[in-house]
């Protein structure tokens, strides 16, 4: 599973000049609105013909302007889930789902209707018309429609952006299942760092039409300097932790990691399962002495490895906790009061952590 | 039967093609084609009829050719009356279809092509079904125009009873002779009945189609 993209394209005042390669199961294309994310995947889908470009999936070349090669959209076999679902209003859900089926070459039709229906939980909707569906159902049907065309790559353009929070929560687990259960690379466009940190195995950060950084999700997530200002509150690290046990009396799950023990509320995962843990920088405090008599349960000891300015009053402190980085966003004033410096031994107090249920896909 | 004697369905196909061309493509001379298509809407019907007579009449350039090559005669035949109605109804129908083609969400067509449909399939499975209400509306408009068409018909094919006489021209004839009132009234009643039935049928049809494709 590999996707290689290099594109140059000019659209009025906007110039797209992006190149990345990814072997990930779910590569998030992340950036502020107007950074060229959607233009980039429209070029990949063939909906926009680039001025210059080379695009290949698993070595199969779709576009190579130097060779005057541009496979037409309908022969690319790239599934596309649009932000606005775009279900055909005159067809039933079932007809929508099967629309792409007959166009795929017989030998390449790998998608199984029953499997896709079960994966997305849409079996009971088949006889309905798109207008009779809720926003979340519509988007699941759109995902199913793309999958049943047996694509070799799935593009998702902000599939959750038009939904409210409960609907997003409804769909996120399905996307996690796509990522973990199918052998289908996914490119997932989003401006929401929370979504990206929860879903991505790899991240491509876009800014002003260029790729600012790309690589494995845990590595890119640490680069808080890449986070656009409006998403700054969501910035933080992703860590892999193993479920150690569940304490029924307190309804708490304990997790093990290189950094130490951690606790989350409720029962999450089975013992031994690897969970993806997100720690937002704004939820982390720093202390230079081991805090006593404090309600916070998650306290990691480590050394300061970086101090980066984050806006006029804030500083991001990277604390290396036995190989696991934790980033805290504190004020400049606190930094000076505590006399934080690189190499200093500190305690990172984590006020809130969030875990995403199934395992972060091993790569 | 030859290529020029088109059935109503074939005429509809021609109108659909022209509407599609005008709605979607930019090409050299587009405004000229657009103007020619819409000309019968603006010209006095008598002028259109006279132009038809000049072109498709027995001595006209197209008419004489058709007569010699295929033995087709339009002038002063019922086929000519049909041609006149088709030409007069053409702009109305093209307009209605064009508007509804322009109203089709092109993003749906893009979605269809990402699912593997080529241009023809996209047209047949997405554009055409979504244009259906416009086609129905255009057909009704065209029918209404043909029902009432008088000027172009009478100029092109005259008013020959049993051959080229249409409902309006028959009523006109009745009003020109003494004691023709009864006949004129009878025909008036018939035309009111036909028109009303057509309008109601179109309403039902349009509602049914609209419900089928409503988003």
Tell me about this structure.
The complex is a heterodimer of chains A (363) and B (215). Chain A is built from eight helices and 21 strands. Chain A is of the alpha+beta class. In chain A, α3 runs antiparallel to α4 (135-148) and α4 packs parallel to α5 (165-181). In chain A, the strands form four sheets. In chain A, strands 7-8-9-3-10-11 form a six-stranded mixed β-sheet, with helices on both faces. Chain A has helices at 37-45, 93-97, 113-120, 135-148, 165-181, 193-199, 217-221, 332-338; strands at 3-11, 14-22, 26-30, 52-57, 60-64, 69-70, 78-81, 153-157, 186-190, 202-207, 210-216, 236-247, 252-257, 260-265, 274-280, 284-287, 298-310, 314-321, 324-331, 345-350, 354-356. Chain B is built from ten helices and no strands. Chain B is globular, with a radius of gyration of 20 Å.
What are the SSEs and their pairings?
The complex is a heterodimer of chains A (363) and B (215).
Chain A lengths: L2 E9 L2 E9 L3 E5 L6 H9 L6 E6 L2 E5 L4 E2 L7 E4 L11 H5 L15 H8 L14 H14 L4 E5 L7 H17 L4 E5 L2 H7 L2 E6 L2 E7 H5 L14 E12 L4 E6 L2 E6 L8 E7 L3 E4 L10 E13 L3 E8 L2 E8 H7 L6 E6 L3 E3 L7
Parallel strand pairs in A: 3-9, 3-10, 7-8, 8-9
Antiparallel strand pairs in A: 1-2, 1-4, 4-5, 5-6, 10-11, 12-13, 12-15, 13-14, 15-21, 16-20, 17-18, 17-20, 18-19
Helix pairs in contact in A: 3-4, 4-5
Chain B lengths: L7 H17 L5 H13 L2 H12 L4 H10 L7 H26 L2 H9 L4 H30 L2 H7 L9 H10 L4 H33 L2
Helix pairs in contact in B: 1-5, 2-5, 3-8, 5-7, 5-8, 6-7, 7-10, 9-10
């Amino acid at each position: 599973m590999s996707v290689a993209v290099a594109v140059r394209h000019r659209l009025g005042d906007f110039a797209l000049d992006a190149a990345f390669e990814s072997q990930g199961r779910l590569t998030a294309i992340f950036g502020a609105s107007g950074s060229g994310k959607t233009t980039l995947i429209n070029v990949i889908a063939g909906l926009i013909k680039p001025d210059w470009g080379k695009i290949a999936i698993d070595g199969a070349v779709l576009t190579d302007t130097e060779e005057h090669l541009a496979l037409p959209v309908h022969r690319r076999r790239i599934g596309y889930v649009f932000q606005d679902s775009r279900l055909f209003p005159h067809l039933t859900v079932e007809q929508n789902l099967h629309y792409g089926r007959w166009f795929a070459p017989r030998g390449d039709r790998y998608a199984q209707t029953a499997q896709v229906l079960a994966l997305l939980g849409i079996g009971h909707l088949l006889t309905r018309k798109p207008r009779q569906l809720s926003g979340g159902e519509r988007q699941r049907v759109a995902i199913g429609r793309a999958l049943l065309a047996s694509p070799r790559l799935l593009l998702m353009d902000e599939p959750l952006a038009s939904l409210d929070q409960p609907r997003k929560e409804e769909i996120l687990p399905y996307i996690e299942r796509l990522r973990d259960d199918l052998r289908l690379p996914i490119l997932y466009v989003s401006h929401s760092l929370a979504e990206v940190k929860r879903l991505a195995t790899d991240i491509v950060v876009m800014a002003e039409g260029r790729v600012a950084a790309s690589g494995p999700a845990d590595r890119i997530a640490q680069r808080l300097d890449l986070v656009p200002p409006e998403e700054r509150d969501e910035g933080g690290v992703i860590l892999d932790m193993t479920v150690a046990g569940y304490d029924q009396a307190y309804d708490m799950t304990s997790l093990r990691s290189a950094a130490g023990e951690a606790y989350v509320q409720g029962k999450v995962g089975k013992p031994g399962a690897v969970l993806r843990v997100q720690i937002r920088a704004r939820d982390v405090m720093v202390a230079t002495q081991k805090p006593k008599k404090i309600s916070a349960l998650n306290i990691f000891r480590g050394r300061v490895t970086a101090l980066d300015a984050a806006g006029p009053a804030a500083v991001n402190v990277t604390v290396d906790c036995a190989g696991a980085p934790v980033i805290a966003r504190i004020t400049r004033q606190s930094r000076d009061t505590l006399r934080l410096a690189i190499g200093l031994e500190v305690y990172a107090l984590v006020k809130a952590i969030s875990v995403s249920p199934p395992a972060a896909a091993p790569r | 039967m030859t290529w020029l004697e088109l059935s109503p369905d074939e005429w509809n196909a021609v109108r659909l093609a022209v509407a599609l061309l005008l709605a979607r493509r930019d090409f050299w001379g587009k405004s000229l084609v657009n103007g020619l298509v819409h000309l019968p809407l603006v010209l006095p019907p008598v002028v259109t009829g006279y132009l038809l007579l000049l072109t498709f009449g027995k001595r006209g350039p197209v008419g004489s050719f058709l007569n010699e090559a295929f033995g087709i005669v339009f002038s002063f035949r019922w086929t000519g009356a049909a041609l006149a109605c088709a030409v007069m109804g053409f702009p109305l129908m093209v307009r209605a279809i064009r508007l509804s083609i322009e109203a089709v969400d092109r993003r749906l067509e893009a979605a269809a092509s990402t699912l593997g449909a080529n241009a023809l399939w996209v047209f047949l499975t997405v554009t055409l079904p979504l244009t259906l209400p416009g086609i129905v509306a255009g057909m009704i408009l065209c029918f209404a125009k043909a029902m009432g068409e008088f000027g172009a018909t009478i100029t092109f094919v005259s008013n020959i009873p049993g051959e080229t006489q249409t409902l309006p021209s028959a009523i006109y004839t009745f009003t020109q002779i003494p004691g023709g009132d009864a006949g004129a009234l009878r025909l008036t009643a018939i035309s009111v009945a036909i028109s009303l039935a057509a309008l109601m049928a179109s309403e039902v049809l349009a509602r049914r189609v609209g419900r089928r494709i409503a988003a």
